[in-house]
Amino acid sequence: MKSNINLVSISQIESEKGERSLGILKIASIVCVALVAILSISLFIISQALSPEPIKRQEEGVISQITGLRPKQAKLILVVSKAKDIGTLIQSREKYDELLTLTLDQIPEGVSIGSLELDSAKVSLSVTSKSLLSVDQVINNLYSIISKKEMIKNFKIESISADPRTGSYSMSVTGERI
Amino acid sequence: MNGKINLDSELFKKIYSKYKKHLIYVCAIFVCFLVIIFYAIPELSEISKINEARKQETEKLKILNNNLKILRELNQNTLDSQFDTVTSALPSGKNFESILNSISQSAGKSGVSLEDFSLSVGDVSAPAAESSKGFPFIEIALSIGSSPRQLVEFLSDLSKTFPLSEITSLQKSDVGASVRVRFYYKSFLTTGFSDYAPFGGIGAKEVLLLDSISPWKAESFSFTATSSSGPRTTSPF
What we know:
The complex is a heterodimer of chains A (178) and B (237). Chain A is built from five helices and four strands, in the order ααααββαββ. Chain A is of the alpha+beta class and 178 residues long. In chain A, a hairpin with a 2-residue loop joins strand 1 (111-119) and strand 2 (122-129). A four-stranded antiparallel sheet of chain B has the order 1-2-4-3, covered by helices on one side. In chain B, a hairpin with a 3-residue loop joins strand 3 (165-173) and strand 4 (177-184). In chain B, helix 3 crosses helix 6 and helix 4 runs antiparallel to helix 5.
């Protein structure tokens, strides 16, 4: 006897297969719809939660408070800006009182200044004395300030002369500013 | 067996009748697919943009709150005093009265005599000349009668008056001295300022600076007051 006699008809088998596939498709579609619905709702909620609109409203509130303090704000900005400029100016300007003091300190007793010129590029000095030693002292002092790298980096003796009538010596010197 | 298939309406009707029940589920899955493609994926990239925008707005709010805090904590009297100091030290325009005042004050204190002075205003039609420091200035040439030490004192006093000044050249001879002085000023450019620009208030270094120079303002104005009320024995003129 044949063991593979099938009492169920072919159409019934096909019908059962069709029912099964329909069931699977039904479940798959329900799952898809559910997942997509959950995903869409979640995305919507997240986009609403992350919206910057509430923060912008807070900003407007703060700006309206700052507007009430506008004169103070303007003064503050001006003070900060000008204070910076003032600091720059004070730091960078040359201290001519100190330069003049330094120059005068190089002139010993018994020497008088005939003329003195100071600017950003040079120093010109002419001195007169009855003592040649004092004039020499001026030269030594100028050497000393060069070695200390103060005010001038070099100097040139433009002239040295003696006046027999008055018995005095004159010297003029030019130095290049540091 | 015949391998040919006729694509006619009979075939579609057969397929439809066979798979009628499947159709709705297939359509549902197809619609879900479309929703993912046309809504979910674009929305995801939109969310990342929204998040970036939110971060930027949060930063802006932080800056605004900080600015507001600085303004609220700022003492008005201190600010007014600092404002007076900076506008006296570096005026917004050419202040001839203050300039002449500072020269006469310094001359009076040091005992030098002011013989002559000339102002160099420059071409009114052209923009103001600027020094190498980037500040416009008025240059004044002064002729002074003094001893060298008096001249030192005059220069030192002048450097501590308002408006801020700088000596550019000095000539001393037997008959007197001539000094070229620049008095600086700088207009405040009102190009508009943004509320969103953070301002850090006045720094400690600037506060120290303003505290150190504010007495110069008091001295400038005190001389004007005494010279106008009492005998002008210290006036160099």
